[in-house]
Design goal:
By secondary structure, this protein is an alpha+beta fold. It has helices at about 15-25, 50-60, and strands spanning about 1-10, 30-35, 40-50, 70-75, 85-89. Strands 4-1-3-2-5 form a five-stranded mixed sheet. Helices cover about 25% and strands about 40% of the residues. The longest helix has 11 residues, at about 15-25. The protein has two helices and five strands. The chain has one domain: Alpha-Beta Plaits (2-Layer Sandwich), CATH 3.30.70.100. Strand 2 (about 30-35) and strand 3 form a beta hairpin. It catalyses: an acyl phosphate + H2O = a carboxylate + phosphate + H(+). Keywords: Hydrolase. InterPro entries: Acylphosphatase (IPR020456), Acylphosphatase-like_dom (IPR001792), Acylphosphatase-like_dom_sf (IPR036046), Acylphosphatase_CS (IPR017968). GO terms for molecular function: acylphosphatase activity.
Length: about 90
């Protein structure tokens, strides 16, 4: 099991980024959350197989159609931070 935290910057708030990230994560069998940060970026925590995480990374680099991703950072995370599902907070 892999746990990773992503910080996504660019035009990522107000463009359905979190809801679309949740849809992607659930389709990939991941659990975790997506939340807006006060500085305009979005944090995504994902827990699941490394292959599923890699597929999520590919999606996060682009995001939904109205988004513009300028930066994507990955950090190690603790899988205990994720709940049983993938939520928007």
């Amino acid at each position: 099991m892999t746990a990773a935290r992503f910080i996504v910057g660019g035009k990522v708030q107000g463009v359905w980024f979190r809801a679309s990230a949740r849809d992607q994560a659930l389709a990939l069998g991941l659990r975790g959350h997506a939340r807006n940060l006060a500085d305009g970026r979005v944090e995504v925590l994902a827990v699941g197989s490394e292959a599923a995480i890699e597929e999520l990374i590919a999606w996060l680099r682009q995001g939904p159609p109205l988004a513009r991703v300028d930066e994507l950072e990955r950090f190690d995370a603790n899988e205990d931070e994720a709940g049983e599902d993938f939520t928007i907070t």
